[in-house]
Amino acid sequence: MGAGGEFTESTIRQLWMEDATKVSANPKVKYIDSRHLYINHMDPLESVVSIFKGKIANLDKGNDAALGGTLCVWPDRRVNKPEDVFMQTSVYPAVLAFAERSWRGGGQPDWLTYVGLDGSKEVNVFKEFEHRLIKHKNRYFSKMPFPYQPQAHLKWKFYGPFSNQGDLTKQFYPEETNDIDTSKAALTAFGGTFILRHWWGPLVKGLLEKPEENTTWYATTKIWSDKDQLQNFWIGFNNISRSYASDSPNEGTWDNRKSQVLVNGKLIPPPQWKQAGAKGNLELPLIDEGYEYREPTKVHLKKAGIPS
Fold first, then answer.
1. Cα–Cα separations (whole angstroms), residue 61 to 57, 85, 103, 239
2. Which parts of the chain sit beneath pLDDT 70?
3. Is 174 helix (H, G, I), strand (E, B) or coil?
4. Residue 308 has what pLDDT?
5. What is 204-219 written as a DSSP string?
6. What are the start-end ranges of the E strands in the chain?
7. 3-state helix, strand, coil in the chain (%, to 5)
8. Element of type H or E holding 123
9. Which of 176, 155, 298, 305 is nearest to 221 (CA)?
């Protein structure tokens, strides 16, 4: 609940930490839910998924006590200009997802961060919503900051865990071959953002049910290109929340976990960070640390060939 104090039953509570069931035990106490609705903590693609799939107040519909929810934009970290809030926090896409979930009711318990596992019904449910979301983007938000791209069709295979004994530079099978055996994938999932282990775990579940320390994971996907071309990509690791004094990535790295991305076997270099290695400071605005508000990474794609 909100910050401490002795409140009467007539006081409407805002839930931002405690589980809704602790308040709903007293039917006379009215409340508004915001526990998993602080979008400054979320990656843009994650925010739309989490809000659309979530369950407000852990209920299928409101009642006399559960009055609804509130979507929170709370960038504790200073911004250079007000417009940055809308790019760094994906406000408009999240608002549409929140409106949809509020209108529909229902949803799934917990904080869910990816579209869904291969074969799950929830993938098709999200695809249907995303189709309408993109229509709204093109029709009503074409001149507004709307950092969202379709992700429900993106299929990724994950390989791991590989024990690295704390050495993040170690290489394993998927990195040492040009012909990965897809039958060895530990799981297959859809989405554009995947959080293997959430920084609020185990309260918030990531993709991995039981993430292990000192392990390496690989994710692979296939991209079709009709021609040789340079294509813009959103690429990022460890998207920085706007409520913490997080350090900027060091020069020559994607993040502090030695993460890498390869396309056709070629390493894609990280951005040339504008404030590389800067120590986190709530008064130091983020400039290009998130993929959604920096120049896209340009990647060379080969023309796809059809095998005979």
1. 9, 31, 9, 32
2. 1-5, 18-21, 24, 306-308
3. helix
4. 44
5. S--S-SS--SSEEEEE
6. 13-15, 31-33, 66-69, 116-117, 155-163, 187-190, 215-220, 229-233, 262-263, 266-267, 297-301
7. 25, 15, 60
8. helix 121-140
9. 155
